[in-house]
TrEMBL record:
Domain called GFO/IDH/MocA-like oxidoreductase: residue spans: 131-249
Residue segments, region Disordered: 300-333
Sequence similarity: Belongs to the Gfo/Idh/MocA family.
Ranges of Basic and acidic residues composition bias in the record: 324-333
One Pfam family of this chain: GFO_IDH_MocA
Name of the molecule in the record: Gfo/Idh/MocA family oxidoreductase
Natural source organism: Nesterenkonia halobia
Assigned keywords, A-Z: NAD, Oxidoreductase
Source lineage: Bacteria, Bacillati, Actinomycetota, Actinomycetes, Micrococcales
Length: 333
């Protein structure tokens, strides 16, 4: 069975998705690429043996079986709606839209159409996070009393990106908020937060912080901490620690952990460290595209629906409000 996937956006993320989709050629996947820069689309497509078209209109005219959206955030909602209206299953990078309010019409359209839409919260397809969810759902840890989530970038993205990203909690920690809810099966109901700027003052000048911590409370009273930074010079570090009454488990504590032990004679970790989120989640990104093809073929449901992604954004909004007000903020649903 041949499955034709259209990819919109040939930038850094789009080019990565293109490689992973092209690797599925033996499984019957044909790839068509479009970008606002037609030459860039052709440049990405040529070495992969994929087709390139002039623009998005030409891509939709090809009537692909599925569409992958990897453009800037402002283009997410209009393109999701266009695919849904054409009855085409769609994958889109997070977030669904620039704000929760702008995402609500998308949720309504998806629900009304019964459409299959997968949002790119790739940690749901990371082997470690999947094992943590299985262990929690199986009751192997007992009841959870403490959760600690960390996302630490080795170096910050360009300040131009940060000026429009919505803040550290919205563009970075939203992944932690999503996985905490997904793994535990509970909702985050309130957040308090603090942040600081010790790095490039330009980050503060655009209204962001370079390091932040949130204390979140789940709907069963369990508490969790969520920490993020733009300046983890030791390497890219994403971990999740779950402590329960019966056992504890850590995601991301392997030989690529970006740290070292202070204990004499300790050889762990052996390295090398990850330098980017692309490296840290390489397996998850590959699985993300394989899973989307399965969604298109009707073999499984979306592993992250727009409603779930928007709910994580609601938590991120509460965290940002808490950072700005200094108060504990409820998650508004």
């Amino acid at each position: 069975m041949t499955t034709r996937i259209g990819l919109i956006g040939a930038g850094r993320i789009g080019a990565m998705h293109a490689e992973h989709l092209a690797a599925l050629a033996d499984d019957g996947v044909d790839l068509i690429i479009a970008d606002v820069d037609a030459a860039r689309a052709a440049e990405v497509a040529e070495p992969l043996g994929a087709a390139a078209v002039a623009d998005v209109d030409a891509l939709f005219a090809e009537q692909p079986d599925g569409v992958v959206i990897a453009v800037g955030t402002g283009g997410h909602a209009p393109l999701i709606l266009r695919a849904v209206e054409a009855s085409i299953p769609v994958f889109c990078e997070k977030p669904v839209a620039e704000t929760v309010e702008a995402a609500l019409p998308v949720l309504e359209a998806v629900e009304a159409a019964g459409a299959q839409v997968q949002i790119g919260h790739q940690r749901r397809l990371d082997p470690g996070h999947c094992e943590a969810r299985r262990a929690v759902q199986a009751g192997e840890l007992g009841w959870l009393h403490t959760l600690r989530a960390i996302t630490a970038d080795m170096t910050p993205p360009p300040v131009e990106f940060l000026a429009t990203s919505g803040g550290l909690f919205r563009d970075c920690s939203v992944h932690d908020f999503d996985t905490l809810q997904w793994i535990t099966g509970r909702r985050i109901v309130e957040v308090c937060a603090r942040g600081s700027n010790r790095g490039d003052p330009a980050i503060g000048a655009v209204g962001d912080v370079d390091t932040a911590h949130a204390l979140v409370t789940l709907d069963d009273g369990t508490v969790a901490t969520v920490s993020a930074t733009r300046y983890n010079g030791a390497g890219h570090d994403v971990r999740l620690e779950l402590q329960g009454s019966a056992a504890s488990l850590q995601v991301g504590l392997d030989d690529s952990y970006a740290g070292r032990s202070a204990e004499a004679g300790a050889a762990f970790p052996a390295g090398p460290v990850h330098r980017t989120f692309h490296e840290r989640f390489a397996a998850a990104y590959r699985e993300e595209m394989r899973t989307f093809v399965a969604v298109v073929r009707g073999e499984q449901d979306s592993p992250c629906t727009p409603a779930e992604a928007v709910d994580a954004s609601r938590v991120a909004d509460a965290a940002q409000r808490a950072l700005e007000t200094g108060r504990t903020e409820p998650v508004r649903r």
